[in-house]
Each structure stands twice: as structure tokens, then as C-alpha cells.
Specification:
alpha/beta, FAD/NAD(P)-binding domain, five-stranded parallel beta sheet, 15 strands, binds flavin-adenine dinucleotide, binds iron/sulfur cluster
Length: about 450
């Protein structure tokens, strides 16, 4: 349904902004840091990156040292530098932010990681010790963090990943214009250089079970499988061709970009009228990606602008790129006979007591495609093929505090979105770092008991 009034933006499909700092800009920015005695930036960072220290090294022009300092806490600096919600974390907490011009910590982290990778200033070295064997299921930020941290401690780690390439949402969710896939591949290569092995295209559960992994001699197993099942909207017309899931759409775009599927298989085409339901970051990504494919995109949300969960910066960029918004619109049905032609929503209102109620008034919007971005939950492929791993009523894996992250089955740990519900890359990393410590504690105790003949 091409439209001559619609600009063909599909060339942007293969482009992203080059917003990196030059060495001169990075050093100048680093020199602005006050090196505060009590650095609030560090407290603002969920994984407590040693921010003032790496900035001080960078200010002296020592990028290699800055990179080594960051590597003490993070296995994914080039990713975090690009996709962390900095305005709510380190940058929001920087004292200079209160005066209106905080240090651009994310950009500095991104510069250090990119420059180091390009110039090969530092090399990850695997430790020569061998403490035990760990299987990691899933290679998103949680799995990669557990793998990297345990490898640094001297564990032999094998990652099992369902997709053809590791990276989880970093590879198949977050669009290329925000996070280039070569950046993700580069970070994974550094983790590989620590000795971590990746087994792709293995779906744990159907292909190999937890019990079989233990029988192969692993001392502990980590589940970092994220939230694979998208939520659906149970309204008339929900099965019409043209009603899609945001995660599927974004994954198809990523696969088309890497040449694994044909561009024609991407379910949004030039000139399409696309409606995205949901105003979180996933909704913004889906709408901005649709625009890049040459479609028109409108986000429909049942509440108001004030209550949407997307980051202000993501929302701002979506607006600048031409995404339109319909607020207080609760979808009641998808329209069409054999295929989707539009959607009908009820106009909502918020009472003085902040309760959301329907007004009874219905309106319709035309649509060639509707993309649902209303959340995900974990799949049950692993828990249904083994025994002893309990989940809560929403399907999230239940874990303990001691050893940190262990599930109700001994030796099986879990972390990231599969435990704490969909959050952010850095929160998955934060939890995974604690779980890596829990796994190390568990294996040490297990080996000690084995040595004592218990
Ligand atoms: C579109 C989108 C955009 C986002 N944007 C941002 C952002 O800008 N900033 C931010 O901080 N956060 C963002 N997030 C959230 C963030 O990406 C997630 O919180 C984070 O990736 C969770 O990490 P994880 O490792 O727990 O799970 P995931 O990244 O989901 O990784 C899970 C991995 O496990 C694999 N897997 C699942 N089941 C099995 C199995 N049985 N066997 C083998 N492998 C399996 C999956 O294939 C996947 O690779 C975004 C999320 C989405 C969906
Ligand atoms: S709070 Fe800001 S100025 Fe202070 S050390 Fe951190 S980045 Fe530097």
C-alpha cells in the first residue's frame, strides 16, 4: 500500500547516528569532572562503576587505564554507554547536573570502550586456575555478566543460547540505530577471550534438560532466559493477519539486517499505516523502527503522557522522528474481515481520584499493521522439563538470598528479567553480578564438602 506522499525512509534501515565523542572531546569532557570526595555518580550507577577513577585516567589521556578500571565492574561498557537510562542513574546523580550541565558519563564510557577495542589497548586474560564448571542458559546481559564474572574468577563457563547469535535483547530487541550489533559482537568476543564457550541454537528444555546438564558434570547452572513470551490483548480480532508482537517485529528487522531473512519477510512495508499499542521503551523502539522502514507510526496508549513508562529522551526522539500519539485510548477491537484494516478504541478519562474509567465513546483508526508492545513474561520451557524449580503465579523464577540467586533446586541459579520482571540492561547485570558471587560461594562449599568426603 505504497503512498507517494510517504517519504521512503527505508535507506535508514542500514544507518544509525554516529554520536561518538572524538578523543579531544572526550578528554575535554573528562577534565570537567570535579572528582568529588563523595561521588554521587557512583551511587547512581546500579553496578557501582568506578566512575570518578576512570574519568580521572581519561582526563590524563590514559584510555587503557580507564578501560581497565571500568572492566573491574562491567563486562558490557560499550553497551551500557549507549543504552543505559543515564539521566536516571549516574548522570542524573552527578553534582554538576544540578547546575544544568552534568558530566556526559555514558558518552565517556562509550568512548573508552570503543577506543580500547579499536586500538586494542587492553586484552582480557583468562585466569590459569580452574575452580569448577558452570553452564549458563541464555546470553542476554544477565547470562553474559554471570559468564564474564565467573570466568574472571577461574570457572570454566559454557553458555547455551537458543538463537543463532548470543546477546539476547541486545542482539534481537534493541534496534540497530540505538545499539549497533557489531558493538554487541565485540563485547561478546572479549568475554570469549576470557575462556567462555558459546553453544548457540540450543533450546534448553526441549534440546537438553537441566538434569542432562548436571549429568554432564556441571557444578552449577544459571538460568538467564529473560521474558520470551509476549503478552497478548484479548479483544475481538486479535488473531487477524496484521496483528503482530513488537518483539517478533524487532527480531525480524534484526534478522533481515544481518541477512538471515529476506527484507520482504519483515512484516512492515513502505507506506504502511502502523499502530503501536503501548508507550514504554519497547513501543518507542517499534514505532521508530517502523518509521525507518518508511511506514507511518502512531502510538496508542490507554493512559496519559505523564504516566507512560518510556524514558523522556526516547519519547522526545520518537516525536522528533514523526511518531504520533493518541492518549487515553483503550483498544476494544481490531477491525477487518480477512486481514486487519484498523482498530477501535474507547476514549478513557481519569477522575479526580486518578481512577481510569471508560467514557463509552468509541473511535476508530485505520491500520495496516498493529504492533503490540504491552509487556512480556517468562516461558516455561525449562521449569516444565525438570523438577524442583518453583515459579510465582506470573511464571517468574523464585530465588533465595543465600546463596544469592539460588532457585528452589540446589545448584540451579537464576537472574535477570526471568526473576525480577522486565527491567533494564544494567539492572539485569546488577543482579547477575550478585548471583555470580552466589554461584562461586555455592561451588566452593560443594567442593569443600566433597574434599571432606561428605
Ligand atoms: C525492544 C527492547 C528495547 C529495550 N531497550 C532497552 C534500553 O534501551 N535500555 C535498557 O537498559 N534496557 C532495555 N530493554 C530491556 C533490557 O534489554 C532487558 O531488561 C535485558 O535484556 C534483560 O536481560 P536478560 O539477560 O535477563 O534477558 P534477555 O536479554 O531477554 O536474554 C535472554 C536470552 O535467553 C535466551 N533463551 C531463552 N530461553 C532459552 C532456552 N530455553 N535455552 C537457551 N536460551 C534461551 C534468549 O534467546 C535470549 O538470548 C529493552 C528491551 C526490549 C525488548
Ligand atoms: S558526581 Fe559528577 S563531577 Fe562528581 S565525580 Fe561524579 S561525574 Fe565527576
Amino acid at each position: 500500500m505504497a503512498d507517494k506522499n510517504v517519504q521512503d525512509n527505508s535507506r535508514l534501515f542500514f544507518e544509525g547516528p554516529d554520536d561518538s565523542l572524538s578523543p579531544r572531546e572526550a578528554i575535554a569532557e573528562a577534565k570537567r569532572c570535579l572528582n568529588c570526595k563523595t561521588p554521587s555518580c557512583r551511587t547512581g550507577c546500579p553496578i557501582e562503576n568506578e566512575i570518578p577513577q576512570f574519568i580521572a585516567a581519561l582526563a590524563k589521556g590514559n584510555v587503557g587505564e580507564a578501560s581497565s578500571i571500568i572492566a573491574r565492574r562491567s563486562n558490557l561498557p560499550a553497551v551500557c554507554g549507549r543504552v543505559c537510562p543515564h539521566e536516571h542513574q549516574c548522570e542524573g546523580a552527578c553534582v554538576l547536573a544540578k547546575k544544568g550541565k552534568g558530566i556526559r558519563i555514558g558518552k565517556l564510557e562509550q568512548f573508552v570502550a570503543d577506543f580500547d577495542a579499536e586500538m586494542e589497548l587492553t586484552t582480557p586474560i583468562p585466569p590459569s586456575t580452574f575452580i569448577g564448571r558452570v553452564a549458563v542458559i541464555g546470553s542476554g546481559p544477565a547470562g553474559l555478566t554471570v559468564a564474564g564474572d565467573l570466568a574472571k574468577m577461574g570457572y570454566s563457563v559454557v553458555v547455551f543460547e537458543n538463537q543463532t547469535e548470543p546477546g539476547g535483547v541486545l542482539m534481537y530487541g534493541i534496534p540497530d540505530f540505538r545499539l549497533k550489533k557489531d558493538v554487541v559482537r565485540r563485547e561478546i568476543r572479549r568475554i570469549e577471550r576470557l575462556g567462555v564457550k558459546f553453544n548457540n541454537e540450543i533450546l534448553v528444555g526441549p534440546d537438553i534438560t537441566i538434569d542432562e546438564l548436571f549429568a554432564d558434570g556441571y557444578d552449577a547452572i544459571f538460568i538467564g532466559t529473560g521474558t520470551a513470551l509476549p503478552r497478548t490483548l484479548d479483544v475481538p480480532g486479535k488473531d487477524l493477519p496484521g496483528v503482530l508482537q513488537a518483539t517478533y517485529f524487532l527480531q525480524m528487522v534484526a534478522l533481515a539486517r544481518s541477512g538471515q531473512v529476506d527484507r520482504k519477510e519483515v512484516p512492515v512495508q513502505l507506506g504502511d499505516n502502523v499502530i503501536v499499542i503501548g508507550a514504554g521503551n519497547v513501543g518507542m523502539d517499534a514505532a521508530r523502527t517502523a518509521i525507518r522502514l518508511g511506514a507511518r507510526a502512531t502510538i496508542v496508549y490507554h493512559r496519559t503522557e505523564k504516566e507512560m513508562t518510556a524514558l523522556p529522551s526516547e519519547y522526545q526522539q520518537a516525536r522528533e522522528e514523526g511518531v504520533e500519539f493518541v492518549w487515553l485510548a483503550s483498544t476494544r477491537q481490531f477491525l477487518g474481515k480477512d486481514k486487519l484494516t484498523g482498530l477501535e478504541y474507547e476514549v478513557m478519562e481519569i477522575s479526580s481520584s486518578q481512577t481510569l474509567t471508560g467514557t463509552g465513546r468509541r473511535e476508530q483508526l485505520k491500520a495496516d499493521k498493529v504492533i503490540l508492545a504491552i509487556g512480556q513474561r517468562p516461558a516455561a520451557r525449562i521449569v516444565s522439563t525438570t523438577r524442583g524449580i518453583q515459579v510465582n503465579d506470573k511464571g517468574y523464577v523464585i530465588t533465595k538470598d543465600r546463596p544469592y540467586g539460588m532457585t528452589t533446586r540446589r545448584g540451579v541459579f537464576a537472574g535477570g528479567d526471568v526473576v525480577h520482571e522486565p527491567a533494564t540492561v544494567v539492572l539485569a547485570m546488577k543482579e547477575a553480578k550478585k548471583v555470580a558471587q552466589g554461584i562461586a560461594m555455592y561451588i566452593e562449599a560443594k567442593k569443600l564438602l566433597e574434599d571432606c568426603g561428605v
